[in-house]
Design goal:
With 780 residues, the chain is an alpha+beta fold. The chain has six domains: 4-128, 3-Layer(aba) Sandwich (Rossmann fold), CATH 3.40.50; 131-185 and 449-490 and 516-587, Topoisomerase I, domain 2 (Orthogonal Bundle); 252-366, Topoisomerase I, domain 4; 593-651, no CATH class; 653-714, no CATH class; 718-767, no CATH class. Helix content is 35%, strand content 25%. It binds one DNA strand of 25 nucleotides through β3, α3, α5, β22 and β24.
DNA sequence: CAGTGAGCGAGCTTCCGCTTGACTT
C-alpha cells in the first residue's frame, strides 16, 4: 500500500510523475478546480467580509470522492498543484474539501516535470500560502460580482440573457472600436515610382524605388517625363552587415498566433490539437505564459542542434517574459524529446508538432547573418535619387529551421514589394540602363481587422485573461452573438498606372479588389449596443487598464501588503452604486438611429434592434393609423453604417413578379442569396443577376431551367410515391425521399433499386439519430 | 431561404479560471 498521495492538476502530469516516484507514491489528479461558488445569489455574503459559499459541481463529485478515500488511507498527502494564484487556491480547496490535517499535509511546487525537479520539491515542502489564496479569492469574488451584477443590468436595459464580464466585455470593445476605426478611415492615394534597371554583360535585372511618393498625378507624370532622357548612375553604394535573432519558444498566446498565421488554425483548434500532443506525451503543457526552458530541455536542445546541424549553429539563450501578468507556473511549450523532429498522428497534429519543434530548436540556435546593400541612383535631370535595397544571407543560423511570421507580413503580401531582393554586382559611378519605369497609384490602408489570434495577442498585452481562457473567451463572445467570424467580399477599386514607353508617358486605369476579408472578427449590432452601453455607464470596468489595476492589487494581497476584503470593499461600493444608479436612470438601449426621410412617403426612416434582430422602419406606430413598414437588415449590414438608400432598397423585396401555372412568383433574398419562391419551392437566382431586374418572363425561365436541371439529374422515379426518386448528385447517385437524402450502400446499382429497396433504406435513415445542431449545445 | 416589431408576467439567463471528456466529421 502506498504511503503517500500526491495530487496534481492534470492527469497526464500525474501519469508521468508516478513513473518517477515509484510505488511508495500514488499520484492522482484533481482535474483543475474541484469547487466553485454556488450559482445562486447568496454565493457571496458581502456584509460579512465577502464570505463565500462553495460547492463541488456534479461532474467533480466522483473525483473528490476518490481523492477523499485515498487521502484517508495515506500517511502523507502532497499537494502539488501549480505555483500560482489559482494553483495555490486549488491546494487550499483540496485541503478543505478532503478534510486534510496540517500535520500530514505538505504543499510542494515545481516548474518542470523532471525527476530531479520533483525529488527536490519533495525535499523542501512548505505550508499553504494563505496570502496567495486570498489573492485568488479576491479575483474570484470580483469576477463574480462584476459578471453577476452587470449582466442583469443588460437584461433590463437591452435584452435578456446577455452577458458582461471583466474579460469578455473588453474583448468585445476591442473589436467594436477597431471596426469604427476602419469605418472612419479615408484612404489616401499617392504614386509610387518603381524603376527596373539592367546592368552588366548578362543584362541582369534589379528594381529601385523612389523613396518619396507623389500625391498629384501631374507630379508623377512630370517625374516620368523628366526621366525619359536622363542618365542614371550609381551615386553611392553601401554594404552593411546585419543580423537576426530567433524568437522565444512558444507560450499559449504565441502558439495560437503562429498556428493561425502559418497553418490557418482557429485558436480552439490549436488548443485541442496541442492537448492531444500533450496527452500522448509529445509536448510539454500547452497552457503557459512562460518562455523558460528547463535545464534538461536546454541540454537536450544543445545536443540535438550540435548533432543535427553542427556546433556553429548552437547558441545558448535565455528569454525573459514580456507580458506583464505572467505567472510562469510552467515551462514554455516545447517537444518532450528534441530528437523527434516530427511525429505520427493526423496531419494537423503533425504540422502543429513540427511548428513547436522548429520554434523550440530555433530558440537555441545562432543568429542569422546578412549583408544589406543600399544602392542610390542619381538621375541626371532631377535632384531625386532612386534607391535599391538588396539583402544577401551570409549565414543562415536559426533560419535553417524556422522563420517567425508577423501580422504585418500578412498585410503586405499583396503589395508586390521589391524589398530585400538580391542585387547583381554593382560599382559606384556605374551607368545603368533603364528598362521600365512606372508610377502606380497606391492607397494607405486602414488598420487591420482582428483575427482570433490577433485579438488574443492584444488581450495578453493588456494583461487580460489567462492562457487557459483565451480560447474560451474568443468562443464566448461569438456564442453570445457580440462578434462574428466571417469572410467578406471586397470591393473593386480603380487605380492609375503611368508607364514610360518609348519616352512617352502612357496612362492606364486598372482595378483591384480591396477590403476582402477571410475569417476576421466583426462586431454585430447587439455587440455594438452592449459595448456602447457599458462604455457609457461602466467605463471603469471596460477600461483597457482596469484588469492591470486590479492585478496590481491582487499582487499586493499575495505579498501580504493589502487586506483582500478591504480591497474588495473599495472596489465594490462605488461599483454597486453605479449599478443601482444605472438601473434607476438609464434609458433602454436599442441602438436606434434615424436615417432621414423617405422621399416617397415623407415619413421618418429609422433602424434599431428588435426582438428578431436589427430592422428598418418607415413611419411611426400611431394608434388608429396604418402600421409602419418593416424590413430586416441583411448579412453584412449594420445599424451604424447603413445608409438611407440602402435601407430603402430593402423594401423593394420581396416583390411579386407575376403568375406562372396559376401560382404567384415572389423574388426575395434569403440566407443563401436571392431566390424565387413559387408554389412553396425555392429557386436560387443565377449568380450575378440583380433580383430587382427579374420580371415575370425571366422568373419563368429560371424556374424552367431549374426543372430541366433536376430532370437531367433524375435517374429513376416511382409511381408508388412521387416524393421518392433517385438522383445524380455531385458525389454520385443518391435516394431522395421527401426532404431526406439517403446514401446508396456500396455494391448496389442505383438504376436497379426498386421502390421497396428505397423505402427500406429511407426508413432506416430516418430512424438514425440526428446529429446535434451545435457542437457544444446548451447545458441543461 | 416567412415576416415579424403590443404588453404582461413567471421563470430563466450571467462571471473567470483550472481541468478533461464525449460528441461529431
Amino acid at each position: 500500500m502506498a504511503k503517500n498521495l500526491l495530487i496534481v492538476e492534470s492527469p497526464a502530469k500525474a501519469k508521468t510523475i508516478e513513473g518517477y516516484l515509484g510505488k511508495d507514491f500514488t499520484v492522482k489528479s484533481s482535474y483543475g478546480h474541484i469547487r466553485d461558488l454556488v450559482k445562486s445569489e447568496d454565493a457571496i455574503d458581502i456584509a460579512n467580509g465577502f464570505t463565500q459559499k462553495y460547492e463541488v459541481p456534479a461532474d467533480k463529485k466522483q473525483v473528490v470522492n476518490e481523492l477523499k478515500k485515498l487521502a484517508k488511507e495515506a500517511d502523507i498527502i502532497w499537494l502539488a498543484s501549480d505555483e500560482d494564484r489559482e494553483g495555490e487556491a486549488i491546494s487550499w480547496h483540496l485541503f478543505e474539501t478532503l478534510g486534510l490535517k496540517d500535520a500530514n499535509t505538505r504543499r510542494i511546487v515545481f516548474h518542470e516535470i523532471t525527476k530531479p525537479a520533483i525529488l527536490k520539491a519533495i525535499e523542501s515542502p512548505r505550508k499553504i500560502d494563505y496570502n496567495l489564496v486570498n489573492a485568488q479569492q479576491a479575483r474570484r469574488v470580483l469576477d463574480r460580482l462584476v459578471g453577476f451584477e452587470l449582466s442583469p443590468v443588460l437584461w433590463k436595459k437591452i435584452k435578456p440573457s446577455l452577458s458582461a464580464g471583466r474579460v469578455q466585455s473588453v474583448a468585445v470593445r476591442l473589436i467594436v472600436e477597431r471596426e469604427r476605426e476602419i469605418n472612419k478611415f479615408k484612404p489616401e492615394a499617392a504614386y509610387r515610382v518603381v524603376a527596373v534597371f539592367t546592368t552588366g554583360k548578362n543584362r541582369e535585372v534589379f528594381k529601385a524605388e523612389l523613396p518619396t511618393r507623389f500625391v498629384q498625378q501631374s507630379d508623377a507624370e512630370k517625374f516620368l517625363n523628366d526621366c525619359a532622357d536622363a542618365i542614371f548612375n550609381i551615386s553611392s553604394l553601401e554594404t552593411k552587415p546585419s543580423k537576426r535573432a530567433p524568437a522565444a519558444p512558444f507560450t499559449t498566446s504565441t502558439l495560437q498566433q503562429e498556428a493561425s498565421r502559418k497553418l490557418g488554425f482557429s485558436v480552439s483548434r490549436t488548443m485541442s490539437l496541442a492537448q492531444r500532443l500533450y496527452e500522448s506525451g509529445k509536448i510539454t503543457y500547452m497552457r503557459t505564459d512562460s518562455v523558460n526552458l528547463s535545464d534538461t530541455a536546454l541540454d537536450a536542445a544543445a545536443k540535438e542542434i550540435n548533432s543535427a546541424f553542427g556546433e556553429k549553429y548552437y547558441q545558448f539563450r535565455k528569454y525573459k517574459t514580456k507580458s506583464a501578468g505572467a505567472q510562469e507556473a510552467h515551462e514554455a511549450i516545447r517537444p518532450t524529446y528534441f530528437n523527434h523532429h516530427t511525429t505520427d498522428g493526423d496531419s494537423a497534429e503533425v504540422r502543429l508538432y513540427e511548428l513547436i519543434w522548429k520554434r523550440s530548436i530555433a530558440s537555441q540556435m545562432s543568429e542569422a547573418l546578412f549583408e544589406k546593400t543600399t544602392a542610390k541612383i542619381s538621375i541626371s535631370t532631377r535632384k531625386d535619387e532612386l534607391v535599391a535595397n538588396g539583402e544577401v544571407l551570409r549565414f543562415d543560423g536559426f533560419l535553417k529551421v524556422y522563420l517567425e511570421s508577423s501580422d504585418e507580413e500578412e498585410e503586405n503580401k499583396n503589395d508586390h514589394n521589391s524589398e530585400n531582393a538580391i542585387l547583381p554586382p554593382l560599382t559606384k559611378g556605374q551607368q545603368l540602363n533603364l528598362r521600365d519605369l512606372n508610377a502606380t497609384e497606391r492607397f494607405t490602408r486602414p488598420p487591420a481587422r482582428n483575427t482570433e489570434a490577433s485579438l488574443v495577442k492584444k488581450l495578453e498585452e493588456l494583461g487580460i485573461g489567462r492562457p487557459s481562457t483565451y480560447a474560451p473567451t474568443i468562443s464566448t463572445i461569438q456564442n453570445r452573438g457580440y462578434v462574428v467570424k466571417e469572410d467578406r467580399e471586397g470591393k473593386t477599386r480603380n487605380y492609375h498606372v503611368l508607364t514610360l514607353i518609348n519616352k512617352k508617358v502612357v496612362k492606364e486605369q486598372k482595378s483591384e479588389i480591396t477590403g476582402a476579408e477571410k475569417a476576421k472578427l466583426f462586431p454585430t449590432d447587439i455587440g455594438v449596443v452592449v459595448n456602447d452601453f457599458l462604455v457609457q455607464h461602466f467605463n471603469g470596468i471596460v477600461d483597457y487598464h482596469f484588469t492591470a489595476g486590479v492585478e496590481k492589487k491582487f499582487d499586493e494581497i499575495a505579498q501580504g501588503l493589502e487586506d483582500w476584503t478591504k480591497m474588495l470593499h473599495k472596489f465594490y461600493e462605488p461599483f454597486h452604486q453605479e449599478v443601482e444608479e444605472t438601473i434607476k436612470t438609464a434609458d433602454k438601449a436599442r441602438g436606434e438611429r434615424d436615417l432621414g426621410i423617405d422621399p416617397k412617403s415623407d415619413k421618418k426612416v429609422s433602424v434599431r434592434i428588435g426582438r428578431y434582430g436589427p430592422f428598418v422602419q418607415i413611419g411611426e406606430a400611431v394608434e388608429g393609423e396604418e402600421k409602419p413598414a418593416y424590413a430586416s437588415l441583411r448579412a453584412g449590414q449594420m445599424i451604424e453604417t447603413i445608409t438611407l438608400e440602402e435601407a430603402l432598397e430593402l423594401f423593394k423585396l420581396p416583390k411579386k413578379i407575376g403568375v406562372f401555372e396559376d401560382k404567384e412568383m415572389t423574388v426575395a433574398i434569403g440566407k443563401f442569396g436571392p431566390y424565387i419562391r413559387h408554389n412553396s419551392m425555392f429557386y436560387s437566382l443565377p449568380k450575378g443577376v440583380d433580383p430587382l431586374d427579374v420580371d415575370e418572363k425571366a422568373g419563368i425561365e429560371i424556374i424552367e431551367n431549374k426543372r430541366q436541371a433536376d430532370a437531367d439529374k433524375l435517374i429513376k422515379s416511382f409511381k408508388e410515391d412521387p416524393e421518392m426518386r433517385i438522383e445524380n448528385g455531385r458525389w454520385g447517385p443518391y435516394i431522395k425521399s421527401g426532404k431526406l437524402n439517403v446514401k446508396i450502400p456500396k455494391g448496389k446499382e442505383a438504376a436497379e433499386l426498386t421502390y421497396e429497396d428505397c423505402k427500406v433504406l429511407a426508413d432506416a435513415a430516418e430512424k438514425e439519430p440526428k446529429k446535434p445542431a451545435k457542437k457544444f449545445a446548451k447545458k441543461k
